[in-house]
TrEMBL record:
Name this polypeptide is given: Peptidase C83 domain-containing protein
Transmembrane segments: 139-160, 166-184, 196-212, 218-236, 248-268, 274-291, 298-316, 322-342, 349-370
Claim: Protein transport is one of the keywords in the record: no
Keywords per UniProt: Membrane, Transmembrane, Transmembrane helix
Organism of derivation: Streptomyces ochraceiscleroticus
Region of interest called Disordered, as start-end residue ranges on this chain: 1-120
Low complexity bias: start-end ranges: 30-47, 96-109
Domain of life, source organism: Bacteria
Length: 375
């Protein structure tokens, strides 16, 4: 007999401590349709229905108490507190011949589920999602395509450096625009049109000021532009109605992006031969770092390649030793830029902006300072 035959209140307790459905007195039919007399010494006939024992009718003899049938199955309360396999085992343990077989079943653990994703499903995920699903490191290198774009931009800068300063200024302006957009997106702030435009404008103002002054005045121009732009970024954040934490986060991202755009102008302020050496070293370093090699081997190979490119480019202007030092420094700065652009599951847009611009932008201060120090 199933639980539903006792109604929705089966398994509840009344105020007097009795449980509805726990005991009942069967109704014995009277008259000519009464059940035939049963042999008091005959074994009771039992069966099961849905795992619950039942007799052969109203005339079945009681098992424990006269005129009383006890429900030994699971109630709604007990069934809700134990798993299905344990409940089923508990319901059938009292049946003849099944007690020994039911004991091991109550302790069986459910079969483990198969892996939710296979190789085909993982191939459809984005690189950052695939790394997260496999439990890999949150650092994802930009790869060969951003490295090729960085190398192409560095080659354009190296070719334009010996020309009048207007030509390298155009290449530097493109570098500053990509740097400003990539830094905001790397910090998870998108869209941030006002911050990106303000940082890019700071780079353009620096370029114009460098074109109007001598190369020796580049530090004064850079520091002056950074001072003014820090004030402008503060004014811009005064209009921000976000929370205090979000305003502070936007303030730091705006200041850093503006500083990187201004520092990228160091290629325009450096001597032409230093710009050529630094650009060549950055191009070779990012390409070597993108090769499918182990991490430490790739880093060492990239630094050696940058040093060799610096020596080769320095031979064009009789700066062999200086070219090696400048190439090594520029290559190291490029690797730092790649590492920053690879952090915390970056997106494809980050790789094609920050991953392209940061290696070349961070190398600009080293190119300017070492170019002047090494002659």
């Amino acid at each position: 007999m199933s639980d539903q035959q006792y109604g929705p209140y089966y398994g509840q307790h009344d105020p007097y401590g009795q449980q509805y459905g726990q005991h009942y007195e069967p109704h014995e039919p009277q008259g000519p349709y009464a059940a035939p007399a049963q042999d008091p010494y005959a074994a009771p006939q039992q069966g099961t229905y849905d795992g619950h024992p039942y007799g052969d009718g109203y005339g079945a003899p009681p098992q424990a108490h006269p005129q009383t049938q006890t429900w030994d199955g699971a109630t709604w309360e007990t069934d809700a507190r134990q798993p299905a396999h344990a409940s089923a085992a508990a319901e059938t343990t009292h049946l003849p011949g099944q007690q020994a077989a039911a004991q091991p079943a109550a302790h069986q653990e459910p079969a483990p589920r198969p892996a939710p994703a296979d190789a085909e499903d993982l191939s459809r995920l984005a690189p950052n999602q695939r790394a997260r699903a496999l439990g890999h490191s949150p650092v994802i290198p930009p790869g060969f395509q951003p490295a090729a774009l960085t190398a192409g931009l560095a080659v354009l800068l190296a070719l334009a450096a010996p020309l009048p300063r207007v030509f390298p200024a155009l290449v530097v302006a493109v570098l500053q625009a990509v740097t400003a957009a990539g830094w905001f997106r790397l910090n998870g702030m998108w869209p941030a049109r006002q911050g990106i435009a303000l940082a890019f404008l700071g780079g353009l103002v620096t370029d114009v000021a460098l074109l109007a002054t001598d190369r020796d005045d580049a530090p004064v121009v850079g520091i002056g532009t950074l001072g003014v732009w820090c004030l402008l970024v503060l004014v811009l954040q005064l209009r921000n109605r976000s929370s205090a934490d979000e305003r502070m986060y936007a303030l730091t991202a705006g200041l850093t992006s503006s500083a990187l755009a201004v520092l990228a102008a160091g290629h325009l302020a450096a001597a032409p031969h230093a710009t050529v050496i630094g650009a060549a070293a950055v191009a070779v370093a990012v390409l070597a770092r993108a090769l499918p090699l182990p991490g430490p081997v790739s880093v060492v190979l990239a630094l050696l390649a940058a040093t060799g490119a610096g020596i080769a480019a320095g031979q064009l202007g009789d700066h062999g030793t200086a070219g090696a030092v400048l190439g090594l420094a520029a290559g190291g700065c490029a690797l730092i830029g790649l590492r920053v652009a690879s952090y915390d599951y970056p997106s494809r847009f980050v790789h094609l902006t920050a991953g392209v611009a940061l290696p070349l932008a961070l190398a600009a201060p080293a190119v300017y300072v070492l170019g002047r120090a090494l002659g």
